[in-house]
């Protein structure tokens, strides 16, 4: 793919995409916790928090999970096979969460990533988080509590997906893509070697 076929996105644009999505995210209630999928979900998650937390409200904790897509498994982590494989490099510490925050049972959880490409990563994240919370709820006898999962991405690529997001598991949560884009390479600013040149290209494409 030539440089010109890429979609260039500036930091300003990412900031505004997060800002614009905040109201819709709040439409199903204030998230109790944000779970950012690293590395691409980290920066959007932090920006988003400032917009979804209204003045006077308590802060929303951000927790990180590490998921990477690999052609081959390479022997690390847990793997689910849907085309490319998801390797889990970091997960939640449920014990520490319960001690310092609360358990995730009955909470409004927001999963954040930068891009929904084949949907493999989001499928994995939702399924595994849902499974863990459900297992914990059974163990603690709290299965009557309503845990809701919402998903936010900056960009959803308009293409056939390799996996689904289960609405049943989301339990009333929303799926929000700030922008739906064609199936092209998205050049994010955090990958730019020359950020000034990158910003110029993003502005020229109207992504500022
Ligand atoms: O919809 P999918 O086809 O699953 O692709 C989307 C995922 O791919 C990228 O992750 P990557 O594994 O490249 O890791 P990174 O976030 O650390 O760059 C991206 O950050 C998403 O998490």
UniProtKB/TrEMBL annotation:
Domain Phosphoribosyltransferase as annotated: residue spans: 11-131
Keywords, comma-separated and alphabetical: Glycosyltransferase, Transferase
One Gene Ontology term of the molecular function aspect: xanthine phosphoribosyltransferase activity
Transmembrane segments: none
One GO BP annotation of this record: IMP salvage
Keyword Glycosyltransferase: yes
GO cellular component: cytoplasm
Signal peptide start and end residues: none
Pfam families noted in UniProt: Pribosyltran
Protein's UniProt name: Phosphoribosyltransferase domain-containing protein
């Amino acid at each position: 793919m030539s440089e010109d076929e890429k979609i260039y996105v500036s930091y300003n644009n990412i900031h505004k995409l997060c800002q614009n999505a905040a109201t819709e995210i709040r439409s199903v209630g204030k998230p109790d916790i944000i779970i950012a999928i690293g590395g691409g979900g980290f920066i959007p998650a932090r920006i988003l928090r400032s917009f979804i937390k209204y003045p006077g409200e308590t802060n929303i904790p951000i927790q990180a999970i590490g998921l990477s897509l690999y052609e081959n498994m390479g022997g690390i982590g847990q793997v689910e096979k849907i085309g490319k494989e998801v390797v889990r490099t970091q997960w939640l510490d449920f014990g520490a969460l319960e001690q310092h925050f609360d358990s995730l049972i009955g909470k409004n959880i927001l999963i954040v990533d930068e891009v929904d490409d084949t949907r493999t990563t989001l499928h994995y994240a939702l399924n595994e988080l849902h499974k863990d919370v459900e297992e914990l709820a059974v163990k603690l006898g709290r299965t009557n509590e309503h845990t809701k999962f919402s998903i936010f991405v900056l960009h959803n690529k308009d293409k056939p997906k390799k996996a689904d997001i289960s609405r049943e598991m989301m339990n009333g949560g929303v799926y929000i893509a700030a922008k739906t884009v064609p199936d092209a390479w998205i050049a994010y600013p955090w990958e730019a070697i020359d950020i000034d040149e990158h910003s110029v290209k993003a502005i020229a494409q109207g992504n500022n």
